[in-house]
Amino acid sequence: MLLVLASVGCRPKSVGNGAGGADSAQMAVVEFLNAARAQDLQGISAVWGNEESPTRDRVARQELERRLMIIACHLRHDESRIGTPELGEAGRTLFSVEITRGSRKATLPFTTVRNRRNNKWYVEDLDLRPAREICNAEPVSRPQARPGAR
Predict the structure, then answer these.
(1) Tell me, what DSSP letter sits at residue 20?
(2) What is the spatial distance between Cα 103 and Cα 38, in angstroms, rounded to a whole number?
(3) pTM, to two decimals
């Protein structure tokens, strides 16, 4: 995964399920995207992990927050579309996800895996490179100055 450090304002209300992991591979992607759209770092971390543990349980807090901010920046979107799941290696499920922010679109590959310990699904990997333009883009809409306003 390519990571580019970016500063993002985050932490509105949590949209994740709170317990960690998701009941299906597709729900892991849905919850991950919903949390990213809301810029909810805790929500993203709730469904980011591997077959052994959630990422938040094995990465130092400062490093985890840095990675989550990068993910949140790249996955800011207005709309998303999750493609048909494909079987990957060792029981993994692969998804192609299209995100749209304003006029910009990016298609990203997601890999999900079932955790052996809690039997929940997590986003294990995603390639953020196709979403670079979304992260680097100006906000979709800017407030317009009213005539006569100073």
Answers:
(1) S
(2) 19
(3) 0.79
Q: How many CA atoms lie within 13 A of 61 on its CB side?
A: 0
List the structure tokens of 61.
């807090």
Q: Which residue has the tokens 């079932």?
A: 114
H or E segment and range at residue 86 = strand 86-87
- Where along the chain do its domains lie? 25-136
Query: What pLDDT sits at residue 135?
Result: 85
Closest C-alpha to 34, from 12, 63, 2: 12
Cβ atoms within 10 Å of 74's Cβ, excluding its own? 29
For the chain, give the number of residues.
Answer: 150
Q: DSSP code of 19?
A: S
The pLDDT, as a whole number, for residue 49 is 97
Domain 25-136, classified CATH 3.40.50.720, yes or no: no
State how far the Cα of 52 lies from the Cα of 65, in Å rounded to an integer.
Answer: 20
